[in-house]
Structures are given as C-alpha cells and as structure tokens.
Design a protein that fits this description.
Helix content: 25-40%
Shape: elongated
Number of helices: 12
Number of domains: 2
CATH superfamily of the largest domain: Gcn5-related N-acetyltransferase (GNAT)
CATH topology of the largest domain: Aminopeptidase
Distance between the termini: 24 Å
Length: about 375
C-alpha cells in the first residue's frame, strides 16, 4: 500500500538517499538544504490548514540553507511531498511545488534559444546559427520539480511515478488561489550517471570556471552568479563543440518519460533552457492543465458497498487536517458532485477529522 503525505523531519535520511540517486537542482544531496526544505514545507502546510499566509519559521531563518532558498523563492509556499510504502514505513519517492518561483528582485534565470542568420548576395551564401541569450523572468510562476522515485519501484504496476507527478496538479487544483497562472517545470538536462554534463563542460564552464558539482551546489542558495558572469549578448552555440548544440534543450533517457508525461498534460517547450545543464524549461497555463480542471473539493467521504464500487473510477483522493497533515491515495471511487464514496480501507488511510478534502478523476 502506498500513501502520499507531506515530508517530515524523520524523512531526512530517506530523502537524502533518494537525492543521491540522481541530479536535481531543487533536491540536491545536501542534508542541510533538504532539512530546510522540510521546514519550509511544514510551515506551508500549516499555513494552508489555518488559511494564513506562510512565514519563515525561526529555525529556517537561522539556517543558511533556508535563507538561501528563500532568497530564490521569497516567502513563497513550498510543498514537499513524499511517497511512503506503508508496509515498510519507508519513503520511496518525492516531488514538490514552489508556489511562486522568483519574482521582483530575484528573477528566474534561463537561456532563450533562437537563430541568427547572415547572407552574402555576391557569394550567394547564407548561414543560420543557433544562439542563446540570457533571459530573466520576474513574474513568479509556480514551479513543479524534484520528482524522484526509488529505482527499485520504477515500472511498478501502480504507476507510482505518475502518482508523484499527478498529486501536484491535484493539490494545485484544490488550492488554486495559492498558485500562479503559469506553471513551469525545469527538466534535468543530459547528465550521465557519473554527473557529466556536456552542456556545462563545453559551454557554461567557459564563463563560470568551476566544477559542475560546486556550481550545482551553490545554485541552491543563489543564482546571482549566473546573471553576474554570463554575457547578456547572444552566444553562438553552433560554432562550439557539437555536444553543446545537441545537449541544448535535451534531457537524459531517465528524464524522458517525465517530459513526455508533462507534454501530454499540455506543457510545451518554448526554447528556454537551464544555463547550467541545458535542460528544457516546460511551461503551461495553470487553468489549461486537465488534471487541475478535473479536481474538485469534497464535502463528504463515505464508504460504498462493494457492489456499488463496480462502477468506480480511478481517482486521487486527499485530506488535510487542522494541523496541516496532508494525505493522498490513488484508488477507485465513486465521485458525484462534492461527494466521494470509496472502500472502508481507503477511508481509514485518510484523515477522519479533516478540514478539507478533494478528488481528481483520472479515468477518461
């Protein structure tokens, strides 16, 4: 049995182990940063339950890691989810949402790909080159990311990776006013299992002469070095090593299924890439995501007889209690208006005394 819930301090070891399985800028294998994210997330869930705005906790203010994260996100809500195998009580996956990434005075940074061309009439020659231009975004879009599933559970018949991804849109749909009108997903670029990034080594390192691991770690608490060191004028990628152009906007084989899943939900690639690893930034209008539109708040969660559940559909159902404790499951249920009917065992896995509940119908 599997349960999605908010991350807790006791999950630190499991999350640290997961973070070491892959490279993710928004969940690096740094214990202090992960602990700070857990603190910020817990404050966000508590604020959600109370209906108040989030403010940094005393502990997170004292942590340099948290202070750096908040320099990137401001005082935005950050929601860190974990997937728990309830039979072993172990955390086997995670994903997250940053309600407003960046904004005035701390913009989101990317490289925008385009083309430059020149022509000679006398020689009847023309060339077109791919160029990258530094771009900043101060709108403060919602960002999803940090999806990691333990390698041992990939390919599971319950499609656990999909659940970790979909629960974010379920959550956004239930709490729409806390999120921006635009959602972005910064996909991991083409990085091999040894941590080699061709885009960084053959392009970015010309301007930021440090090891990728060092720059990657520093990017958790500041992006100023990107805008400070990268040129503002268009940079010609075509004249560089062929690996640069090939890696610009590309993802690794392990990330490709996640990219395709988001594209099926309506995300598009508009030419923005990460300045460090060259990974594509996908984006979508929040209200155009089918899962957001398919989510509804519930007034009741009742038990249905087995005979009725023959007509049940696949859903994500969640509850939030007065302390900010969030639980979500994927199951089959009957959803009519603001009422959901499901198995007694599923009802037990959710909160009995909840302050809010919701459902997203997945069957189509």
């Amino acid at each position: 049995m599997f349960l999605i819930r908010q991350a807790r301090p006791g999950d630190l070891d499991d999350l640290h182990s997961l973070a070491k399985q892959t490279y993710f800028i928004n969940l690096p294998p740094e214990r202090e940063i992960i602990a700070s994210k857990i603190d910020q997330s817990l404050a966000s869930f508590r604020a959600l339950a109370s209906g108040k705005a989030t403010r940094p906790t005393r502990r997170s203010q004292a942590s340099s890691g948290a202070a750096g994260i908040q320099a990137l996100t401001g005082e935005s809500d950050l929601f860190l989810f974990v997937l728990e195998d309830t039979e072993s009580s172990g955390v086997i996956g995670t994903s997250q949402i940053i309600a407003r990434m960046g904004g005035p005075d701390h913009p989101r940074v990317s490289l925008l790909l385009g083309q430059s061309s020149r022509r000679s009439e006398s020689l009847k020659l023309e060339w077109k080159h791919q160029v990258a231009t530094l771009a900043t975004d101060q709108r403060g879009p919602t960002e999803i990311g940090g999806l990691i599933l333990n390698h041992a559970f990939r390919g599971h018949r319950q499609r656990l990776g999909r659940l970790l991804s979909f629960v974010r849109f379920h959550f956004i749909g239930l709490n729409r006013r806390r999120f921006a009108d635009q959602i972005i997903a910064e996909m991991l670029g083409a990085i091999d299992h040894n941590g080699y990034s061709p885009f960084f080594e053959k392009f970015t390192r010309h301007f930021i002469p440090r090891a990728f691991s060092e720059v990657y770690r520093f990017s958790q608490t500041s992006k100023e070095f990107v805008t400070g060191l990268m040129p503002e004028y268009p940079l010609d990628l075509t004249i560089m090593d062929p690996e640069v152009a090939n890696a610009a906007g590309a993802v690794s084989a392990a990330t490709l299924p996640a990219r395709r899943m988001l594209e099926r939900l309506g995300f598009v690639y508009e030419g923005h890439i990460d300045p460090l690893d060259g990974g594509p930034h996908l984006e979508v209008r929040t209200d155009e995501v089918t899962l957001v539109r398919a989510t509804r708040s519930l007034a009741s969660l009742d038990v249905a007889p087995a005979a009725e559940l023959r007509k049940a559909v696949e859903v994500i159902v969640s509850t939030l209690d007065q302390t900010g404790d969030f639980r979500a499951i994927q199951t089959r249920a009957l959803v009519r208006g603001s009422r959901a009917r499901l198995k007694r065992a599923d009802q037990v896995r959710l909160h009995e005394d909840w302050v809010s509940a919701g459902a997203t119908v997945l069957d189509r």
